[in-house]
Amino acid sequence: MLELLQSLKISLLHTGFARLGTEWNFDNVISPFARLFYVQKGTATVYHSDTVFHLKPGFMYLIPSFVYNRYKCEDYHEQYYISLFEEIHKGLSIFNLKGFDYEVPLQAGDELLFKRLGSLYPERTIRNSDPKAYTHKPQELLLMNKKNAQNKTQRYLETQGILILLLSRFIKNSEPENRFTPNIGPLKDVLFYISENLHTSLEISYLAKKYHLSNDHFSRLFLNLYGVRPNRFIQMKRIERAQLLLLTTNDTLEVIAEKVGLNNFSYFSRIFKKITGITPGKYRKNQMNIQI
Hints:
Helix content is 40%, strand content 20%. It folds into two domains: 2-168, Jelly Rolls (Sandwich), CATH 2.60.120.10; 190-287, Arc Repressor Mutant, subunit A (Orthogonal Bundle). It has eleven helices and nine strands. The strands form two sheets. It has a five-stranded antiparallel sheet with strand order 1-8-3-6-9. Strands 2-7-4-5 form a four-stranded antiparallel sheet, with no helix packed on it. The chain is globular. By secondary structure, it is of the alpha+beta class.
């Protein structure tokens, strides 16, 4: 577990301050990045992880990546916000390893950390009043992060420290309650194997043979361990990876389908819409006008 946590990689996408009114009203938001924000004034409502969060001043909030969420402001509120990519292993998230609170009180100095990050990256604010005004695509921001690490090491290290510290405020000292926690049983590395091989067919017969089990035994064991059938899990992970590629690359939809192991584009598009509610093309178009 410690070894995995030490491999945590965090990449900043956006940071800034926003004054938001009734226009802050969005449904069916599923982002491949995590969102963290601090409410300074006013109220609003966010729903995710089967919970309604009534946002209030003096508290910080976290929305994990790849969760369905919706949010609404009926009057007015002000927030400092951060959006980031995080990864502990190719295709796996820190949310798979640790339990999280999603609402925590602001601690001494936390507001200064939000403000400091904004002062370090004044160009990373989200401009959502006009889609054409949003000029920084995520893939460009990630490239900027790499250049920042090479050319401005002090700023890069300070950024990492701020992000890790703020994220740590939400971590519980317990295992996550979700069903995709890596385990120490006979399939202890199956999630990692699946994550690293999403570009392949990943037939159940092959996986069963790899773990020296019959097809039925493998499927039953996977279901007992993770609460979902292996085919369904693989399907979900393919679409999650596709969402990430749609947002962070300029690859065509056909190329992305191949990269996630779904060479039949019609099938890929159908499965993508079944899981996310929209087509891959519409998803990419929507994400180019990212809302905070």
